[in-house]
Amino acid sequence: xxxxxxxRRRFRxxxxxxxxxxxxxxxxxxxxxxxxxxxxxxxxxxxxxxxxTRCKPALRDAAMRELxxxxxxxxxxxxxxxxxxxxxxxxxxxxxDDALARLEAAGRSYACxxxxxxxxxxxxxxxxxxxxxxxxAGTCRPQAGDPGVALLPGRxxxxxxxxxxxxxxxxxxxxxxxxxxxxxxxxxCGDFLLGRPGAPTYQLAAVTDDLAMGVTDVVRGRDLAGSxxxxxxxxxxxxxxxxxxxxxPLLVDAEGQKLSKRHRALTLAGLRASGVAPxxxxxxxxxxxxxxxxxxxxxxxxDFIDALPELDPRxxxxxxxxxxxxxxx
Length: 329
Ligand SMILES: [Zn+2]
Description:
The chain has about 325 residues and is of the alpha/beta class. It is about 30% helix and about 15% strand.
C-alpha cells in the first residue's frame, strides 16, 4: 500500500540537523504536530540531511530527544520506522535521481552549466527571490531543434523548464495561514535548479519526499513560504497534485529579526539545561504567536491542538492579527 492511501491526512516536520534545534524549530514542530492531531492525521518526522558535511548523526539524535522533551511525538520517523522509510534524506538519494531522470525524459527540465556567479552576472538587476533563488536568465535553455548542453560534473545542474509553461507558471497559493496569493514563477525565479544526480536541491528533495510519503499538508514557518509556488510547479511536473500549505508566524527578536540559530541560549537543549520546564516553554511559544495570553504559566501539548486557527485559506484574510511573535531573552 502506498503511504497515505486510505484518505488519512498526512503532515510532516522536516528539520535539518546542522545545529541544535532552537525555540523556533520547537514552535514549528509543535504547530505541525498539533495540526496533524486535530485533523486525526499522521505526523511524520523527516530528517533533511543531504548536506553530509554539516549534518551530524549526533545532532539528529539530539533533535529527536529535544522534540520528545517538548512533547512532540511522531507516528513515522528515523527511529520508529514506517511505510515510507527511510526517513532520512541522505538515504533517499536514488529517489531524487529517479525524479531528475523522469523530469528530463518528459522534457520538463534541461541541463545548465552556469555557476552561481554566472547566473548573477547574467541578471540585469541582481536580487534574491524571497525563497533564496537567483532569477535565471535562461543562458543554457535549449532552443528549438537544439539538444542543449550536457551537464558538467560538480557544477550547475538540471533546471525545471518554467518559462515554457506560459501562463501555467502563474501559481495561486491558498495558504491556510497567510491567505491567497499569486506568484508568476517565470519572473520571480524563472527556470529553477533541481540539482544533479547525487546532489538534489532542497526543492527537489522536499517535493519528491512529500509525494513519496503521501504528505497531504505542509505546515511550516513563514520563512519557507517563498518556496511554495516552485514546489507546487514541481509537484505538477511530476504528475501529482500538490499538498495543502499553511505557514505559521515566526519567532523574532526584539528588533523584529528572525531568531539566529547561533544563539546558544535559544536552543531547546540550552533552555532545558538552564532548568526551563517544557510546560513553561510551551506556554511561552504559544503566547508568542498569539494562541493564548502572555500570562499563561504552563501549557500542555494538547493546548496547541485546541488553540490553533482553522487553517482555512478562505478565512485567513480575517486573521490579519496573526503576526510574528517577539521572543525576548
Ligand atoms: Zn545555465
